[in-house]
Amino acid sequence: MTSFSASIWTVSPFDPPTATPEQRLAVGQLLTDSHAFALPDDPPLRPELEALGLTHVSPDEAARHFVVWDGDQAVAWGSLGYSLTQNLHAAHARLIVHPDLRRQGLGRAVAEALREAAREEGRRLITLGTTSHVPAGDAFARTLGAEPALPMRQSQLDLAGLDQGLLDRWTARPEGDPYRLHLWTRVPDEFLGRMVTMMEVMNTAPKGDLEVDDWRITPEMVRAWEDMIEEAGEIRLILAAEDTRTGELMGYTETFWHPERAALVYQGATAVRPEARGQGLGKWLKAQMLRHVQAEFPGARWVRTNNAEENAAMLGINVALGFQPWASFTEWQVRLG
Fold this sequence. Notes:
This protein has helices at residues 21-38, 47-53, 106-120, 136-143, 164-171, 189-199, 219-231, 281-296, 312-321, and strands at residues 11-14, 61-70, 73-83, 90-97, 125-131, 147-158, 179-184, 235-243, 249-257, 264-272, 302-308, 324-335. The mean pLDDT is 96. The protein folds into two domains: 11-123, Aminopeptidase, CATH 3.40.630.30; 155-328, Gcn5-related N-acetyltransferase (GNAT) (Aminopeptidase, 3-Layer(aba) Sandwich). By secondary structure, the chain is of the alpha+beta class.
C-alpha cells in the first residue's frame, strides 16, 4: 500500500500546459493507478500518455483542472471541460481519487472546486459519468445531487469467437450497389467537409434526459482530434460509406487502437443518415470494420463499445455480432442553483 503523509488536504488549481513534466506525470500516475484498481485485467495505461492527454484540448474548448497533492504525489484530480462556442450552459466533469484514500473527503473537496469553477464560467449544468466497475461512483454522484440522465451498456466482443459467416453475409452487397467504402486514418482534404456533416449525424443518437443541445463540429476540430490521436501514438480507423450518385457520405464507423495496449480495441461512433437507413449500411460498416481490425491491429483480442440502452437498433447489431454485456455506464447531470 502506498504511504501518505498528509492529514489535511488542499485542493489546488492545476494547469497542465504550464505545469512541470514531473507534475503532469504525477497526475498521469494517479490516473494509471486508478484504472488498474478498477480494471486489473485490462492492459495497463501508461502514465506518460495519460500526462500527455491532460494537455489535449479541442479548438473552441477550455478546461480547468484541480489536484490534491501529498508532497510530489497527486492523490486526487478533477477536470471541468466546456465549450466556448456552444452548449454554453453546460460543462463536463471528471474526478479521480487514489484508491487508498477514498471515503476521506477528497472527492467532495475536489467536487466543490469543480462546482465553483462551473459557476465562475457561467455554467448551470454539469455532466459526469460513472461505471459499474467502480460501484461507489453512483452513490457518490447522488451525494452531489446528480440525477441519472442516460443509462448505457458497455459491451465487449471476443474476436476469437467472431462469426465469419455472418461477416460474409453482412458485407455482401447487391449488384449495382451505389455505395462504396473508404478506409482512412486521417480524413482526406477533399472529404473533410462531407465528413463533418456526417459526424454530426451522431446528434440523432439517444440523449436520454441530458439537457444538452446538438453539438456542431468544425473541420478544425476534426484536424485537432486527428493530431492529438497521432501524438498519443494511437491509431484511429475510419470507414465511411459514400453514395457514388451524389458523393455524399451516408454512414461511418470508427475504431481506436494503441500498440502498447494491443489486446483492446475501442469501437467509437457509428452513424447512418436517417434517409439511408434500412439498406444494411450499418451492418456493412460494422462487419467490414471488424475485418480491418483483425487484419490491421496485431494482437487485438477484444473490442469494447458503449451504447445507450434505448438505442435498440445499434444494440441489435452489436448483439448479433457477438458483443456481450461487460459493464453499465451512466451519464449523470447536476443542475447548479
